[in-house]
Specification:
13 helices, 6-stranded mixed beta sheet, alpha+beta, EC 1.10.3.1, 18 strands, 27% helix, single chain, Catechol oxidase protein, globular, 2 domains, binds CU-O-CU linkage, Jelly Rolls, di-copper center containing domain from catechol oxidase, oxidoreductase, 499 residues, 5-stranded antiparallel beta sheet
């Protein structure tokens, strides 16, 4: 009886899997005829009678995207001129600067529903769509800028915020008379001020400790917590799928923090594209994927991209440099050299372990130990068991912080630290951060908007560094990163094994 019942249950589970697989599919390009404008901006995309499929450009010389703080005066003039030309086009021209900026808004505030799954809204943040979508967006923007100045070799700069020399706002953006200026930038964050996105470094204004803390965040987010493409890029978002939003480590830090720090326009996805610095911020985010694949050696391990057709075939629409509306798929943008560009090689000061030190856990030892779920109104500790057995050699421990719930209109975030019962040391494991959705669609904003996300961080290196053993109890500290009193709830924390 028992055996029969368990066979029956297995069959049912199999069927559920098969059915859900049939339903879930790649994200379909938006149906541009059905736009629901945001409260903040009318950012509907310009429609066209014909849509063509994207073709890779014929290979010529590669465009080299330079570090923004290293460019020449001539380059700045050229870039500013291209942006100025973009700003002076008629407002309803697809290349007009505001039309370009609106593309970002159109893909992120529930402006469109999926063409192949009308019950779901299209959102390109908080999942595996994040990196490839922004790569496409920048690709077309760059090609159009080049077209406007008749220079096919034109390449966008990248804001090298992962390097000490690049951690401030690049000077090309600070001239109030330039087309690259935005007057909503934070006054107190102008050069020579630099970013301070390091965890537990808040209120510390010593430049060298700021840099050190920043590099530690870079190392954890890009190296030790991101050993697989899915950890780096984020979890699935499929048409008809029901997986929770699960942003990757490259999206979580310092990406949202840089948005917030820069200024008002940059702080909201609706308006971020209005500030020209957005494109060099995202050029560096894009570069992170490239650095991860090549310089950090994730190319040879077979985990350099996600081998899932729902990801590879997800498609998006953009106006291109030939004034055509183009449908492009994620599989088209896996290789930057096929798209015709590379990044200037600059030092990567955070690529090895010396960038991240374990710290003394003493100061956190008095925090309250809680059971989950918990409202994260102050820092808390949770005990979590490290799995006893590894099924396969190459499996690695991943920390899953699940059921993170908050009002999407709030800016919320927390840092995760890991320690053990037998060690007084703790290590920074990664960060969760959500940029406030400022002006959501009317129908959604009325009732508030409860958002639920999941954070997944690779733990393999930290387990080794802390000399933790299988079956041992971990002490996981969750520390709100923007003061207390945030309405953010954490449902559960566990360690999984995954390959
Ligand atoms: Cu689409 Cu950095 O945002």
């Amino acid at each position: 009886m028992h055996i029969k019942l368990s066979i029956l249950i297995s069959i049912i589970i199999c069927l559920i899997y098969i059915v859900s697989d049939v339903v879930a599919m790649p994200i379909g390009a938006p149906d541009l005829s059905k736009c629901q404008p945001s409260l903040a901006a009318n950012c509907c995309l310009i429609n066209s009678r014909s849509i063509v499929d994207f073709k890779l450009p014929s290979t010529g010389a590669l465009r080299v995207r330079p570090a923004a703080h290293l460019v020449t005066k001539e380059y700045i003039l050229k870039y500013a001129n291209a942006t100025r030309l973009m700003r002076s086009l008629p407002l309803n021209h697809p290349w007009n600067f505001m039309q370009q900026a609106n593309v970002h808004c159109a893909y992120c505030e529930g402006i469109y529903n999926l063409s192949n799954f009308p019950n779901m809204t299209l959102e390109v943040h908080s999942s595996w769509l994040f990196i490839p979508f922004h790569r496409m967006y920048l690709y077309f923007h760059e090609k159009i800028l080049g077209k406007l100045i008749g220079d096919e070799s034109f390449a966008l700069p990248f804001w090298n915020w992962d390097s000490p020399e690049g951690m401030g706002i690049p000077t090309m953006y600070t001239d109030p008379n330039s087309s690259l200026f935005d007057n909503t930038r934070a006054q107190n964050h102008q050069p020579p001020n630099i970013l301070n996105y390091g965890s537990t470094n808040e209120g510390n204004n010593n430049i060298s400790s700021q840099i050190e803390a920043n590099l530690e965040v870079m190392y954890r987010q890009m190296v030790s917590s991101a050993k697989t493409a899915e950890l780096l890029l984020g979890g699935p978002y499929r048409a008809g799928g029901d997986e929770p939003w699960s942003p990757g480590t490259v999206e979580m830090a310092p990406h949202p923090y840089v948005h917030m720090w820069t200024g008002i326009d940059m702080s909201s996805f609706v308006t971020a594209g209005w500030d020209p610095i957005f494109y060099s911020h995202h050029s560096n985010v894009d570069r992170m994927w490239e650095v991860w694949k090549t310089l950090l050696g994730n190319n040879s391990t077979g985990v350099n991209y996600i081998n899932d057709t729902d990801w590879l075939d997800s498609s998006f629409l953009f106006w291109d440099e030939n004034l055509q509306l183009v449908r492009i798929k994620i599989r088209d943008v896996l290789d930057t050299t096929k798209l015709g560009y590379v990044y200037q090689q600059v030092p990567i000061p955070w690529s090895n372990k010396t960038a991240a030190k374990l710290r003394d856990g003493e100061e956190m030892s008095s925090l309250r130990l809680v059971e989950l779920p918990v409202v994260l109104d102050s820092a808390v500790k949770i005990n979590v068991e490290l799995p006893k057995m590894k099924m396969k050699m190459n499996m690695e421990e991943v920390l899953v912080v699940d059921g993170i719930e908050f009002d999407a209109r709030m800016h919320v975030g927390f840092d995760v630290f890991v320690g053990g019962l037998r060690t007084s040391k703790i290590g920074f494991a990664g960060r969760f951060e959500h940029l406030a959705v400022k002006k959501w669609r009317k129908d959604v904003a009325m009732g508030g908007l409860l958002m639920k996300k999941r954070l997944v961080l690779g733990l393999k290196d930290l387990v080794k560094e802390l000399k933790l053993e299988r079956g041992e109890l971990l002490v996981v500290t969750l520390m709100p990163s923007h003061g207390t009193g945030m309405l953010i709830k954490v449902g559960s924390v566990r360690v999984d094994l995954s390959s």
